[in-house]
């Protein structure tokens, strides 16, 4: 029988609990598909349509959450979730620490993949392209819109570095909070800022019945136009 609660003195490990078998998890995806004739002229316009639907109808907690994958100079990949903060025809923007692992990867190798996992809608969007840093003015304008606590957090964290424990982090935050009380302007950390991913290809994936999904990919052409190709599911 599955245990619902585990008391400290039971000496029960997680392994004793019956865990669901992922191999038996199977969902039938919706029938409405994505046709070439449905697509907008540019991938960013098409993304805007799907993003609007994800935000309004998608029952998604954070539709702007995306998985950012980078690779270092030796080609070793790594992925993490990041929030999309802006998009337009120039690209997709997120903010992070420039000393983080992802930022160090991007300094060596600017090729990046962004994946929006919109599972409740049986959709995903995959952007591949080139990342470059946003300008300091753009970074500063966004930094000023962040809540005071998040502004301090950007100063307190040496993102991706190994630390001795939680205490040092909390102490650094408390010290910063005392130095910059609520209502006071927090300077933009020099080690913090945005990346803009200029898309080279954008795939729109719509789950369909019997695993016969629709996959339509826009690919940038040398003349600045977009070619659309259909991929086998
Ligand atoms: C939902 C969610 C949103 C996140 N948003 C951001 C973000 O916008 N920027 C960021 O630097 N890290 C964000 N993180 C934390 C990253 O996943 C990651 O832990 C951090 O950026 C360090 O990654 P790295 O060591 O691979 O560079 C978010 C995590 C989650 C789960």
Q: How would you describe the overall organization of this protein?
A:
- The protein has 233 residues and is of the alpha+beta class.
- The chain has one domain (30-170, 182-230): Electron Transport, Fmn-binding Protein, Chain A (Pnp Oxidase, Chain A, Roll).
- Helix content is 23%, strand content 30%.
- The chain has 5 helices and 9 strands, in the order αββββαββαααβββ.
- It has helices spanning 43-57, 101-108, 136-143, 148-156, 166-179, and strands at residues 65-71, 77-83, 86-88, 91-97, 111-118, 123-133, 192-206, 214-220, 226-230.
- Strands 1, 2, 3, 4, 5, 6, 7, 8 and 9 form a 9-stranded antiparallel beta sheet that branches.
- Strand 7 and strand 8 form a beta hairpin.
- Helix 4 (148-156) packs across helix 5 (166-179).
- It is globular, with a radius of gyration of 22 Å.
- Residues 1-10 have low confidence and may be disordered.
- The structure holds flavin mononucleotide (FMN).
- Pathway: Cofactor metabolism; pyridoxal 5'-phosphate salvage; pyridoxal 5'-phosphate from pyridoxamine 5'-phosphate: step 1/1; Cofactor metabolism; pyridoxal 5'-phosphate salvage; pyridoxal 5'-phosphate from pyridoxine 5'-phosphate: step 1/1.
- Residues 60-176 form the Pyridoxamine 5'-phosphate oxidase N-terminal domain.
- Its cofactor is FMN.
- Catalyzes the oxidation of either pyridoxine 5'-phosphate (PNP) or pyridoxamine 5'-phosphate (PMP) into pyridoxal 5'-phosphate (PLP).
- It holds the Pfam family PNPOx_N.
């Amino acid at each position: 029988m599955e245990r619902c609660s585990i008391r400290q003195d039971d000496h029960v490990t997680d392994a004793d609990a019956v865990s669901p078998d992922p191999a038996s998890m199977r969902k039938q995806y919706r029938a409405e598909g994505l046709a070439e004739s449905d697509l907008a002229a540019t991938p960013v316009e098409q993304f805007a349509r799907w993003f609007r639907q994800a935000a309004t109808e998608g029952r998604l907690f954070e539709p702007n959450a995306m998985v950012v994958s980078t690779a270092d100079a030796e080609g070793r990949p790594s992925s993490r979730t990041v929030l999309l903060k802006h998009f337009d025809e120039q690209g997709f923007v997120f903010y992070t620490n420039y000393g983080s692992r992802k930022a160090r990867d991007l300094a060596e190798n600017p090729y990046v993949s962004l994946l929006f996992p919109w599972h409740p809608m049986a959709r995903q969007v995959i952007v591949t392209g080139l990342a470059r840093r946003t300008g300091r003015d753009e970074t500063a304008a966004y930094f000023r819109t962040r809540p005071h606590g998040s502004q301090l957090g950007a100063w307190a964290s040496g993102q991706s570095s190994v630390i001795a424990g939680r205490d040092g982090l909390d102490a650094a935050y408390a010290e910063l909070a005392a130095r910059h009380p609520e209502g006071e302007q927090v300077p933009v950390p020099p080690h913090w800022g945005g990346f803009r991913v200029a898309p080279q290809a954008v795939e729109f994936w719509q789950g369909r019945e019997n695993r016969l999904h629709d996959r339509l990919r826009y690919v940038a052409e040398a003349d600045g136009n977009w070619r659309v190709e259909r991929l086998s599911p």
